[in-house]
Every structure is written in structure tokens, then in C-alpha cells.
């Protein structure tokens, strides 16, 4: 890594790419991340020293790059990754946040967690084994969580003599399977993470491969257009009211643009109440901005003194979301105590927490073969299914596939306060009758 | 669409502002833990961006080990006064007097460990239900797995195996009475990000981050500062060196590095080329491979 370049390009130009990896004990996931950190010189000497120490103690001969990522005591003792670990990597071109998650079915909830913020899913395949149940599971989760890009790393190519035929046949298998998923962009890369083939530099051992190395792929993947810039959504988080002499009547609504773009002068509609106004000013500390786009955190002042508070969502009158207290959603159950129809939960969506009750489990998805099982009474830990939920307060939402922020929620157990489920709202089955606001027919 | 590109620093800043506003909205009595070090300075800057032109909706609190660098304490007081916010200081010394914290027999040992009981007692005193900390996930392996909203039980303890899943940017901050959470708004920042941000925002930082002359002696692969609390042993020779500090903690355990950096830009160049991690210079992390995990379970930041 050229350090001066990081400084010059790093501050204003470099983008942030978040990717998730999932894998099981022996498919080389931790080795791949370790290799990436090692070869891009993102590891420090004392971290390497710590690594050697542990290697000597456990009597292993080869440097175990996996030990870099398995940080908790239990993980090191059992040689497995239990939780989501976040890793950071910077190259002159980009900055990366890696959500490293375990791959076993009992850690589905961790995979879902890691996938929730990712722009890219990195899926590892052992070239000797090809597409297996776990590959399908990971891919399904990536698709469900709306990750726009996926890269299939066909790893351990050294163990199949870098054979192009093996690689091609795995790619064909995956192509057939993935046509059933909802992932816009899939890339395939043959590699050997253990020896660094096609990780940072292209390997002379696979001259038949014409694509980019893994790192170069990560650095050039186009992600700006993945965000929704067409539906302005500004969930109000906190009302700024200084109540000082200098700012006597000052009132600004602060929050993070969930999707879309707002400009000064734009008409806004505050939902669910339906009050209308216009944007007077967009503030970021002492700067006055012309516009704000997702995912910027700003403060918005309106022309009129309308009643807006935390939980309300400012939208553009021409791009209206759904407003309802009944939703259908895909949920991943994350707690030992299974879903109970009729039990009270809190549903946190945007900046609003509402009481909620699960009316019905519509189906459960078998995440290994993607079949849907109807007539199931409940969902247990790590199970995924479609449910019907009724909330006390009205939700202002979009289909998750259209906007990840306005389409996602968590369920919190009322009695224990545990986060029990992650939900992705589906397109409403019957067209919800759109309410009319202030003479506006929507 | 290209002009809707947000730089990585702006993306991180926006995420951190969102976290701070969430806490302000959902908790009764938050507090921002502040040491005068670079990470807490960045947090404070982000808090200003989240809430100005109003005052911060929470106080700023320093848990003082009593072994802090005097330059840093002065910097802390001046800064908090200049931005017109409220500063609470609770000292390890007081906690020792009250018998809440117990010092080990070895006088030269770091008081970092004693910050935990001092902090817990302050949390109880003010009934704080959320405390912002400047921890970053790139610092250490156990931190890499800690949530942004990190739940603590009534004893202030962290249970790494029983963390709430944290999805998208939806945070579950529900607690029962007596429980509280630590919130790490700059979890996703790296050391380099912090410095680039300080440079971009033209922030003031304590002078000991820059190169200066200091009486130091060599111990455990690092230069330690001589002073009231830290005396060299018989075979350790005191020398005058041009050094700076890469992190600011307790004088007893924070090692200086030889450096000639006189500006933030110099520091960025220096650390971008560094091959030793930030915490590589802190003796308190070196006891064992899982030293941080163990301290966090006890209630450390």
C-alpha cells in the first residue's frame, strides 16, 4: 500500500464498501480474510506476532491466518467463528468494512445480521466439493437481505490442480441455482486463499482466468447506483430546539436520509399525519446545503410551523410510500424462544417503536432447498418465513426490495427486551387504499 | 448519480451522528465519556454536528485515573469551556478512598483497571442509562465483535456470548431499571479515519500527540515518561528524546514513540506507514491474548 496515496485520495474520494462473508470451519473463509489483510499489508506486526505466539502454543506448524479473525476465547478454543466480527481494510482506492460471519445453519441469525448492511456478499466454495447446501443457504440469505452484488469465490483451486473444467462446472451449477434468486449481479473468481492465488495479484497458475483478482474486483465494483435516489424518505429522529435567545424560534428536524434526495424548496408531506410544507433549509452543523441524499445525516427546516415529531417521515408528495398498520413481511427468527402468534412484541421500524402482534405465519422457507412450507404454527431460532403483523401505530414503509431502510424492522420481546426477529416488508398483497391528505389525492 | 457519491469519512460521520441522535431520543440520562484523547474528541465533534445549534442533550464525563498527562487535563478543561458544555469528573483516587476501587500492591501498575469500578459507581450516582464510549472495532479482537449498542447487566458486565443481534441501523436500546448500555458511535472508524477526520475538521488536539522533548526511559519495548507516578527502575536509564504519543491514556501504561511529527498531516503520513498497531504500545492489553475481552467482561469501557 502506498501510504501517501491513501492520504491524498483517501479523504475526499474514497468510497466505503461493506461486504459480508460467510463460511464454515474448513472452506477457508477466515484464511481468505486473513490473506486479504496480510497481502494488502493491513495487518500490523504486533498482530502478526500475537498470531505466531498462538500458533506455537497450539503446536501448529503453518501460520494460521484464521486466528486473526477468531477473537473470542470460546472461538479460539473451539476453532470456530461464533459471532459477527467486523474487519477493516483500506487500499488507496477504497475503504472496506468486512462483516465476517459463521456459516453453520445454527448461526443463520449471525449471517442475516452481517448481510443486513452489506453491498456485496462474498460466498466461498471449496473447489473439491462444488455447490453444497451451505452455498445455497448463504446465497438465499444474501438474496433475502437484498444484497445487490455477489461474488462466488471458488477456493482451494490448488487442490484440483487449477483445473479450468472443475471451475467451469461449478460456475454452471451455481448459475442454474441462482436463477431462482433475486441477485442482480454475480461474479465468479477461481482462487487459492491459502497461497494467495488471484487474491491481490492474478496467479500465473490459472492463465485461463481472464477476470480481475479478488482485491481488484473489490476496488472497482460499482456501488453508487445501488442506492435508491428516486423516493425521498426522511424519518425524523430528533427535533432540534435550542430555546436560546439567539435561536428563539428555531426548530429543525434532524435525521438520516433513508432513501432518495431532498432539495431546498421541495414540497414535503409529513406522514402519517399528512401535513404539507416546503423545505426552507438543509443544515449540517453550520453549513447550509442545497440538497441532502441518502445516507446523509442532516437537519431540515420547513417553511410552515407544522406539527412534526420523532417517528414521522417526510416524503415527497409525488413519491408516496405505504401507510398502514398491517404488513406482510419475511422474518428471520433470532431467539431461542420461538415465535408465538398472539404474543406482544415491540416492532422498531425507522425511528418508531410500536406494539405489534403476529397474526399469522403464512409459510416457512426451507433455507436449504428454498421450498415453502405452509401450515406451520410458528418459527423457531434461525428459521425464516413470511408472517402477517398488526401494529398499534401506523407504519410508513416501502417494499424492502425498493428501499432497505424503510422496508426493514426488528421485533423486540416485550418481556425480555431481546431482539427476537429481523423483518423485511413485502409488497402489500392487496393494494392498500391510499389515504388522502389535505386535499391531495394520492 | 455520480454526484451523489459520499466519501467514506462522510459516510462514517453520518452513521455516527445517527447513532448519537438515537441515543438522545431513546434514553433518559445519557452521558458522553471523554478523556481528551483523539477518539473522544471525534465523538464530541460528532455530537456537536448532531445537536447544534442546541446544547448537547447530555453531559460530558471524564473518568480520571489521577495519572493523566497534565497537558491533556488542561486541554480538556479549556475545550469543554469553549464549547459551553457541562463536564463531570470522577476520579479513581476518590473511588480508592471510598473503597470502591482497590489498588494493587505494585505502585507502578496501570490504573486503567481501576477505571471500571469508578465508572460503574459514577453511572449509579447519576443514574446514567447510556454511556457513549470512543471504542473502535479495529483496536482489538474482542472489540471487533462488540455491538454498537453494547448491553451491560446490573453489574456493568458485558456478556459476549449473549449479545443482541444488530441489524441495518436499527438499534434496540430497551433496558430494564438498573441496566445500561455502552454506545460506541465510532465503532466502524479506524485509527487512520480518526486522524483524517481531525485533519479535515481542523480540530485542536492535545499537544502531546505532536513531537516534543521529554525525559523517558525504555521498558517493555516502549518509551515511558518519567514523572510523579512513574519512576525508572535501577537499570533503566533516563534519556531526553523527541517523542510523541500515539494514544493517550494513563501515564503509567502509555508508551511514547520516537517521532518528529509536528502537524496532523505528518501524523497521518506516519501512521499510514506504521507496522505496529495502536494498542501494540499499551501494556494493559498485553497480559494475555484475551486481555481486552476479560477486562470488558468486568465492565471496562
The structural domain count of chain B equals 2
Task: Give the strand line-up of the largest sheet of chain B.
Answer: 3-2-1-4-6-5
Termini separation of chain B: 41 Å
Mass-distribution shape of chain B: globular
Counted up, domains of chain A total 3
β-strand percent of chain B reads 15-25%
Explain this structure.
Chain A is α+β, with helices and mostly antiparallel strands and 442 residues long. Chain A has 3 domains: 3-226, Rossmann fold (3-Layer(aba) Sandwich); 233-315, Beta Barrel (Elongation Factor Tu (Ef-tu), domain 3), CATH 2.40.30; 322-425, Elongation Factor Tu (Ef-tu), domain 3. Chain A contains 8 helices and 23 strands. In chain A, strands 7, 8, 9, 11, 12, 13, 15 and 16 form an 8-stranded antiparallel sheet that branches. In chain A, a hairpin with a 2-residue loop joins β12 and β13 (287-289). Chain A is globular and about 75 Å long. Chain A starts with a helix and ends in a 17-residue tail after the last strand. Chain B has 301 residues and is an alpha/beta fold. Chain B has 2 domains: 2-194 and 290-297, 3-Layer(aba) Sandwich (Rossmann fold); 207-283, no CATH class. Chain B has 8 helices and 10 strands. Chain B has helices spanning 8-26, 38-51, 70-82, 92-97, 112-126, 191-200, 264-272, 291-297, and strands at residues 30-33, 60-64, 87-91, 130-132, 149-152, 180-183, 212-219, 222-225, 239-245, 256-258. In chain B, the strands form 2 sheets. Chain B has a 6-stranded mixed sheet, with helices on both faces. Chain B has a 4-stranded antiparallel sheet with strand order 8-7-9-10, with no helix packed on it. In chain B, α1 packs across α2. The longest helix of chain B has 19 residues, at 8-26. The relative contact order of chain B is 0.16. The model of chain B is unreliable at 281-289 (pLDDT under 50). Chains A and B meet through α1, α3, α4, β2 and β3 of A and α1, α2, α6 and α7 of B.
Features:
heterodimer, A: 442 residues, alpha+beta, Rossmann fold, Elongation Factor Tu (Ef-tu), domain 3, eight-stranded antiparallel beta sheet, six-stranded mixed beta sheet, 23 strands, disordered N terminus, B: 301 residues, alpha/beta, 2 domains, four-stranded antiparallel beta sheet, 8 helices, 10 strands, 16% strand
Amino acid at each position: 500500500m502506498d501510504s501517501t496515496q491513501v492520504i491524498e485520495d483517501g479523504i475526499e474520494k474514497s468510497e466505503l464498501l461493506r461486504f459480508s462473508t460467510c463460511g464454515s470451519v474448513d472452506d477457508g473463509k477466515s484464511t481468505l480474510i486473513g490473506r486479504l489483510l496480510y497481502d494488502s499489508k493491513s495487518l500490523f506486526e504486533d498482530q502478526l506476532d500475537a498470531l505466531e505466539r498462538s500458533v506455537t502454543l497450539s503446536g501448529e506448524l503453518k501460520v494460521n491466518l484464521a486466528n486473526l479473525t477468531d477473537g473470542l476465547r470460546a472461538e479460539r478454543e473451539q476453532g470456530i467463528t461464533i459471532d459477527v466480527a467486523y474487519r477493516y481494510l483500506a487500499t488507496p482506492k477504497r475503504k472496506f468494512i468486512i462483516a465476517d460471519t459463521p456459516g453453520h445453519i445454527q448461526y443463520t441469525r449471525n449471517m442475516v445480521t452481517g448481510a443486513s448492511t452489506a453491498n456485496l456478499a462474498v460466498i466461498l466454495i471449496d473447489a473439491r466439493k462444488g455447490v453444497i447446501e451451505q452455498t445455497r443457504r448463504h446465497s438465499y440469505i444474501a438474496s433475502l437481505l437484498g444484497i445487490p452484488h455477489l461474488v462466488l469465490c471458488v477456493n482451494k483451486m490448488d487442490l484440483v490442480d487449477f483445473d479450468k473444467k472443475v471451475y467451469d462446472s461449478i460456475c454452471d451449477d451455481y448459475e442454474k441455482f441462482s436463477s431462482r434468486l433475486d441477485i442482480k449481479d454475480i461474479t465468479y473468481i477461481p482462487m487459492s486463499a491459502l497461497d494467495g492465488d488471484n487474491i491481490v495479484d492474478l496467479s500465473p497458475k490459472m492463465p485461463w482466468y481472464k477476470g480481475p483478482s479478488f482485491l481488484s474486483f473489490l476496488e472497482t465494483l460499482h456501488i453508487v447506483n445501488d442506492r435508491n435516489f428516486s423516493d425521498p424518505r426522511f424519518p425524523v429522529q430528533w427535533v432540534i430546539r435550542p430555546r436560546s435567545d439567539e435561536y428563539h424560534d428555531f426548530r429543525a428536524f434532524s435525521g438520516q436520509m433513508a432513501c432518495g434526495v431532498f432539495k431546498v424548496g421541495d414540497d414535503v408531506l409529513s406522514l402519517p399525519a399528512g401535513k404539507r410544507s416546503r423545505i426552507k433549509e438543509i443544515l449540517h452543523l453550520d453549513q447550509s446545503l442545497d440538497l441532502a441524499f441518502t445516507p446523509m445525516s442532516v437537519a431540515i427546516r420547513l417553511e410552515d410551523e407544522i406539527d412534526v415529531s420523532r417517528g414521522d417521515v417526510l416524503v415527497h408528495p409525488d413519491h408516496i410510500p405505504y401507510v398502514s398498520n398491517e404488513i406482510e413481511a419475511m422474518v428471520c427468527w433470532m431467539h431461542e424462544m420461538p415465535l408465538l402468534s398472539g404474543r406482544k412484541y415491540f416492532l422498531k421500524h425507522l425511528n418508531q417503536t410500536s406494539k405489534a402482534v403476529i397474526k399469522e405465519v403464512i409459510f416457512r422457507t426451507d433455507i436449504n432447498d428454498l421450498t415453502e412450507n405452509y401450515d406451520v404454527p410458528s418459527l423457531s431460532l434461525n428459521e425464516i418465513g413470511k408472517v402477517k403483523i398488526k401494529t398499534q401505530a401506523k407504519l410508513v414503509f416501502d417494499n424492502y426490495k425498493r428501499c432497505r431502510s424503510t422496508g426493514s424492522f426488528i421485533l423486540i420481546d416485550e418481556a425480555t427486551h431481546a431482539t427476537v426477529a429481523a423483518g423485511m416488508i413485502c409488497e402489500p398483497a392487496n393494494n392498500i387504499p391510499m389515504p388522502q391528505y389535505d386535499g391531495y389525492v394520492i | 448519480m455520480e454526484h451523489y457519491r459520499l466519501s467514506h469519512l462522510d459516510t462514517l460521520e453520518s452513521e455516527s451522528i445517527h447513532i448519537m441522535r438515537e441515543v438522545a431520543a431513546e434514553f433518559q440520562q445519557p452521558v458522553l465519556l471523554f478523556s481528551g484523547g483523539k477518539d473522544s474528541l471525534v465523538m464530541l465533534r460528532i455530537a456537536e454536528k448532531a445537536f447544534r445549534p442546541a446544547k448537547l442533550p447530555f453531559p460530558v464525563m471524564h473518568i480520571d485515573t489521577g495519572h493523566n498527562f497534565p497537558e491533556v487535563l488542561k486541554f480538556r478543561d479549556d475545550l469543554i469551556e469553549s464549547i459551553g458544555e457541562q463536564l463531570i469528573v470522577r476520579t479513581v483516587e476518590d473511588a480508592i478512598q471510598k473503597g470502591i476501587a482497590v489498588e494493587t500492591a505494585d505502585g507502578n501498575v496501570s490504573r486503567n483497571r481501576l477505571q471500571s469500578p469508578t465508572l460503574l459507581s459514577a453511572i449509579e450516582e447519576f443514574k446514567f442509562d447510556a454511556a457513549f464510549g470512543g471504542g473502535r472495532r479495529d483496536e482489538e479482537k474482542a472489540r471487533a465483535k462488540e455491538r454498537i449498542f453494547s448491553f451491560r447487566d446490573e453489574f456493568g458486565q458485558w456478556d459476549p456470548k449473549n449479545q443482541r443481534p444488530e441489524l441495518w441501523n436499527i438499534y434496540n436500546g430497551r433496558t430494564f431499571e438498573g441496566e445500561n448500555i455502552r454506545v460506541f458511535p465510532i465503532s466502524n472508524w479506524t485509527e487512520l479515519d480518526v486522524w483524517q477526520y481531525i485533519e479535515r475538521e481542523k480540530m485542536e488536539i492535545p499537544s502531546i500527540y505532536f513531537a516534543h522533548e521529554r525525559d523517558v526511559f525504555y521498558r517493555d519495548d516502549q518509551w515511558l515518561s518519567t514523572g510523579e507516578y512513574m519512576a525508572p527502575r535501577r537499570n533503566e536509564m533516563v534519556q531526553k528524546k523527541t517523542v510523541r504519543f500515539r494514544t493517550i491514556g494513563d501515564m503509567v501504561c502509555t508508551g511514547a514513540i520516537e517521532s518528529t511529527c509536528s502537524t496532523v498531516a505528518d501524523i497521518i503520513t506516519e501512521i499510514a506507514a506504521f507496522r505496529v498497531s495502536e494498542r501494540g504500545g499499551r501494556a494493559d492489553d498485553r497480559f494475555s491474548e484475551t486481555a481486552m475481552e476479560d477486562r470488558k467482561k468486568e465492565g471496562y469501557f
